[in-house]
Amino acid sequence: MTRYLMPLAFFIILAVFLLIGLTLNPRQVPSPLIDKPAPKFQLNQLHVPEEIMSSDDNLGKVWMLNVWASWCVACRDEHPLLVQLANSGIVPIYGLNYKDDRNTALQWLKRYGDPYAISIVDTDGKVGIDYGVYGVPETYVIDKKGIIRHKQIGPVTVDSLEKKILPLIKELQSQA
Fold it and tell me: Of all helices (H) and strands (E), which one includes residue 137?
């Protein structure tokens, strides 16, 4: 009898973990960077390669960092929404062009519109690694003190923008 209890107990435990896993949203992978200082960087700008942008340039304002690439299909899906958000003036959006060819990226922005206050180039992906990027697009909301407050995995959608990102931005902007 006890010979059958051990495999049965193992199966029940496995089934419980499977059921819990099926209830989770894969887009809500917790990031260890939430509520931590955004990783520091100094990168060349896409449009003006001889100019450098630093993560410290945005201290004192709430901003979004959108990780994108011209080769990214999902980036194209979210792009019209980012252009619309940029045109609203609610929050500055900075682009992190990830593992991309500069000329192709510039052509892509010219074709689809450029929502970015500045786009910076992460050709080797080192800054992406520091931010925990494992796929594009990913978007970060960073507060006035340089703390990451939200990470959007995958494309920004109308739903994620209206229910999570914009309310958070407005809350952060109202803080001293």
Answer: none
Model confidence at 122, pLDDT cuts 50, 70, 90, reads very high
CATH architecture of the domain 32-174 equals 3-Layer(aba) Sandwich (3.40)
| CB-CB contact of 79 with 113 (8 Å) | yes
- Are the C-beta atoms of 80 and 147 separated by less than 8 Å? no
Q: What distance in Å separates the CA atoms of residue 172 and residue 16, rounded to the nearest whole number?
A: 39
Sorted by where each begins, the domain ranges of the chain are 32-174
Closest C-alpha to 124, from 11, 41, 19, 48: 41
Task: Give this prediction's pTM.
Answer: 0.84
Tracing tokens 């931005």 back to the chain, one arrives at 169
Report the candidate in 38, 127, 45, 114 with the shortest Cα–Cα distance to residue 79.
114
